[in-house]
Design goal:
Structural class: mainly alpha
CATH superfamily: MetI-like
Radius of gyration: 23 Å
CATH architecture: Orthogonal Bundle
Shape: globular
Number of strands: 0
Largest sheet: none
Oligomer: single chain
Length: 268
């Protein structure tokens, strides 16, 4: 009993230390965003909202924020569509040759260094006239986000009762109708979580966006990098704070969605 208590205490201490190690840098970023001076210092000499006011007064930063949101939403939609269809198709073709090679193929973009992907896509999109467009960055981010959505949906589909789909087919429902009315309602929360994950990945991706963006399509990470090279002021902390809040908000929404699904199942 005493040994188990010590093991539990050690586990909790290690878990707490890990949380502190992960959250402390985020706390530093948030605190420095309220600095009243023109430099990043922790702790700040004095606190002010002046840099937040400057952010909302800056057309350049607001445009970059809008670009990030537009690209993130586009990436989430496209990656979710491809990830869901890929995972669903593999579940239907598990025993086929095609089904056995889908997972390794989907993993390929994650195994290629982002710098290599960025250079390759830069050359390609420059050749076809898409460099600097929203489409080029969305497609690049989709390469990274789709595998993550795919594996989320593989986990979701592994818990789906496929006899329901067979029953729908036996009753005369076609592939599209059976998917929309039978499969989709059972996996919608997983799709939602996958879409949020794709959005967060796109929102924070930097390397490929650096290669593919132009002044009109700069994202928040790219503009932040440009500003850091010139001067390290609290504006970068302000922008980072917004990215942290969006990411944390997305995680909370996903957690609420999955918990609501569990509660509804318990009450039904």
């Amino acid at each position: 009993m005493h040994r188990e208590t010590l093991e539990n205490a050690a586990f909790r201490a290690g878990y707490g230390a890990l949380l502190v190690f992960m959250l402390l840098p985020l706390l530093v970023v948030v605190v420095t965003s309220f600095s009243a001076s023109g430099r990043v210092a922790f702790p700040p000499d004095s606190f002010s909202f002046v840099w937040y006011v400057d952010f909302f007064d800056s057309t350049q930063w607001l445009d970059a924020f809008t670009n990030s949101i537009v690209i993130g939403v586009g990436t989430a939609l496209l990656a979710t569509l491809l990830g869901v269809l890929g995972a669903f198709g593999q579940e239907l073709e598990t025993d086929s040759v095609v089904g056995s090679v889908v997972a390794p193929v989907v993993l390929i973009p994650l195994l290629i260094p982002p710098v290599i992907l960025g250079i390759t896509l830069l050359l390609y999109f420059n050749e076809v006239g898409l460099r600097g467009s929203y489409a080029s960055i969305i497609l690049a981010h989709t390469l990274w986000a789709t595998p993550l959505v795919y594996f989320v949906m593989r986990s979701v589909f592994s818990r789906f009762d496929w006899q329901q789909l067979d029953a729908a087919h036996d009753l005369g429902a076609g592939p599209v109708r059976s998917f929309v009315h039978v499969v989709l309602p059972n996996v919608k929360h997983g799709i939602f979580v996958g879409a949020l994950l794709a959005f967060i990945i796109s929102l924070q991706e930097f390397v490929m966006a650096l290669f593919l963006s132009t002044p009109g399509t700069e994202t928040i990470p790219v503009l932040a990098w440009t500003e850091i090279r010139q001067a390290l002021d609290p504006m970068v902390s302000v922008v980072s704070t917004f990215l942290i809040l969006i990411s944390v908000g997305a995680i909370i929404v996903a957690a609420i969605a999955t918990n609501l699904e569990w509660v509804s199942k318990q009450l039904s």
